[in-house]
Amino acid sequence: AVPRGIVASSEVEQSYVMIKPDGVQRGLEHYKDLKDKPFFPTLIDYITSGPVVCMAWEGDGVVASARKLIGSTNPLQAEPGTIRGDLAVQTGRNVVHGSDSPDNGKREIALWFKEGELCQWESVQTPWLVK
Ligand code: UDP
Ligand code: MG
Fold first, then answer.
1. ipTM
2. Domains with residue ranges and CATH for the chain
């Protein structure tokens, strides 16, 4: 089987990162914490509108570093050089998701990946980048 995600162990901090449908082309109740928000119905329409690319990332501080790379929720407030800052225009079409806490990282990875879908993998560059 072709591995769908890459993750080494449950002891290390993890973040679920997802390229949203607009990111793929230009559902799931993943957003249950937002179910009472006024934008929830449009958010669910959006997130189920097409295929997404799912990723499990792990490493020290990965939740914060993924969110730094992704940028602010509203692309207009996202810094240049971030994914949302460079590639998105509207909050409702902001290209990419990243978990907001280590606990939610574990929860979301468990929601989007089945047992056995994640594999252990290390780039040959890792020892040159991380001690
Ligand atoms: N969202 C929206 N309208 C809003 C706030 C959020 O459509 O006023 C959408 C947007 O796609 C956002 C997602 O809901 O990325 C989840 O909201 P959250 O506040 O968790 O932002 P995030 O963690 O993605 O930066
Ligand atoms: Mg969030």
1. 0.98
2. 5-129 (3.30.70.141)
